[in-house]
Write a structure and sequence with these properties.
It contains four helices and no strands. Helix 1 crosses helix 2. The longest helix has 19 residues.
Length: 73
């Protein structure tokens, strides 16, 4: 269970901006932390890096769109 408010805020930000090009710096800036500290904090709470989380979310959303939008290839 994620108990850190900043990590929850970052996850909400990532989910709402997943269609855009996101970086660790973007997410850390949004949460007002340095990218190095925030990456450690995020990994401690979620067991994956911010980069890996962004990549996984984008992949899951793409797979969902491929399943639901029949005209897509």
């Amino acid at each position: 269970m994620i108990t850190n408010y900043a990590v929850n805020t970052a996850i909400d930000y990532i989910l709402s901006h997943a269609e855009e090009e996101l970086t660790l710096e973007d997410v850390a800036d949004y949460c007002h932390f340095s990218k190095y500290y925030f990456d450690r904090l995020f990994k401690e709470q979620t067991k994956e890096s911010v980069y890996a989380y962004i990549k996984r979310i984008k992949l899951e959303q793409s797979a969902f769109r491929l399943k639901t939008e029949k005209e897509r290839r």
